[in-house]
Predict the 3D structure of the following.
Amino acid sequence: MAIAAFGHAGSSKGTKNRASKGSAKVALLLLAPGLLYLAIFFIAPLLSLVATSLQTMDVSTGFPIYSYGFEVSNYVSVVTQYGPQIFRSFFYALVATLAALVISYPLAYFIGVKARRWPLLQGLMLTLVIAPFFISFLLRTFAWKQIFSSESWIVTTLQSIGILNPDQYLVGTPFMVIFGLTYNFIPFMTLPLYTTLERLDIRYLEAGADLYANPRRTFTKITLPLSMPGIVSGTLLTFIPIAGDYVNASGLFLGSTETSMLGNVVESKFLKSYEFPTAAALSVILMGAILLLVTLYVRKSGTDDLL
Amino acid sequence: MAIDFVARGADLELVGIRKEFPGFTAIENLDLHIPAGEFFALLGPSGCGKTTTLRLVAGLEQPTKGKILIGGKDVTDTKAYQRPVNTVFQSYALFPHMTVLENVAFGLRQRKIDDPLAKAQAALDLVELGHLATRRPAQLSGGQQQRVALARALVNRPSLLLLDEPLGALDLKLRRQMQIELKAIQIEVGLTFLHVTHDQEEAMDMADTVAVMNLGRIEQMGSPEALYDRPKTVFVSKFLGQSNLFVGNVSSDNSNSVSIDIAGNKITVPKNRAEKHSGTIAVGVRPEKAFFHEEQPKLGADHNLIGPGEIIDIRFTGVSNQYLIEIPNIGKITVFAQNIGKSPVTELGAKVWVSWKVEHSFGLSDVPISTATESIAVQ
């Protein structure tokens, strides 16, 4: 046996080297479609966007003509000009994300932990969480506009009991925009929370109770830390798209010019006034800011291994 | 918090406990008293209600009926976190997001005890894991996790420590080692231990008192020696070690003993070792207390003798040879012979007689369900 093993040692090593070289090639080959996809549909558009954001504008012909350049002042001007919209984007996103978390956590906890004994109820509730996706979110958002319109009984009731002044309405207010954002993104918060809580081992909670932690302490010291992965992915899945959302805050839906978010400015610059460098610079700022915030957030929450 | 924490163990009393789950009754009617400072084992097969009993004491389940008293205080209506009880869980349930040290300090922190980390470190040192305090539970081996779970419970100095098959996941060698350590710690800290297990050797090895549980009831309770020497029911005689059981009608009855007649053989049991003295009864003997003979021996009235039969199986287990002997009209009988160098017979098919001392017989209160006329040797 030993002799045979020695005899083969050299050759088997050679085979192994050849094999690893071969498998590296295979790996590269298998990765190629994905890499190609990323290069065409992510890297190239990104570079194009950055290049566009640095374009210079020439109005000498009386008509704006853009050419590639290195106009960093584009960034300065959009930040000074659209500061309120940028701030609003992140502020609304923060409030709506927190609201979605507060609403989703008990819901996900109920579905994932309390309803374990009734799989049918669990399935039904999960279906209900996803069910709104069967209707276009534009329609649903528009429906909310109708429900909260100035003539609706909700608004007239609120006016009659004095919560709203007779000349105050809901549609077009920051409240309404945050309401819409929260509503639209709740499933993206609930589902990751559910997947984490569904795996929560009840025995840890029993151990907590056994070690003198009352239900509140058990929640803060055990349940909450153990559901951090769900909280982090849920908040990311809501915060990032909300910060770039332009439907809810648009005047056509729940917002007004008073509630314009970054996405609304980008939309109008790209599609209405054709100020491409401005729109591109805003997009890059949005992307960069989100990237920075997410990095800080993930670091802070200690769930690096999640990403 | 109004919890009294004592340095020494407290006694536990269960009064008329009944626990129903949807669809079945886990515990029928349980009365139990465990004196302070005792190592008490609840022994039974899975599904017998022993873990439910433990969870009731811990406060993780509420009894349908009955009362639970710890140290004389009724705790039936108090929550788990209010009871001066700690549990070493079967799965250990160490918090994965905390270090070993924080796990052990958890209970102390909840009760706002001074200097929790130093006390937790001392508890870890007690179980010889002080050097692993900064690790996460997932980085420890099963045996180490078990000891952390023990330290996490012990550090609180509970009146009553509950152990839910804590050694079940360990390999045999580690289990034996932990059994010795656990017993040593119990004697050292003087707490009341309630240990739930299905391992009869573990229960007999460690406990002062063993209660054998079956189908939600306690079948028999006593010291390990008493339970083994004198089982009172078929279940206990089977579950705690092995037994040869013979079922027959009582044929003679004098002031000291009763005898049953089975296929022309007379088997006698002392009256004070028999639960029933009339009708059809089961008489048993432990395999290691029975002997076999190649020739019919001349024995007095102080011995039971049956046979002849035939050796149909021999198993070598190291410590002893285990012989399976088939006696016509009686059935199969197991005999253990110590492996002391010279075994009486080692040949299959040999014709032998089986004997044992009358004083080693025991009479049971019930008879095996499977067979009423034929005796059985239970493996």
In short: Confidence is low (pLDDT under 50) at residues 1-14 of chain A. The two ends of chain A are 47 Å apart (CA to CA).
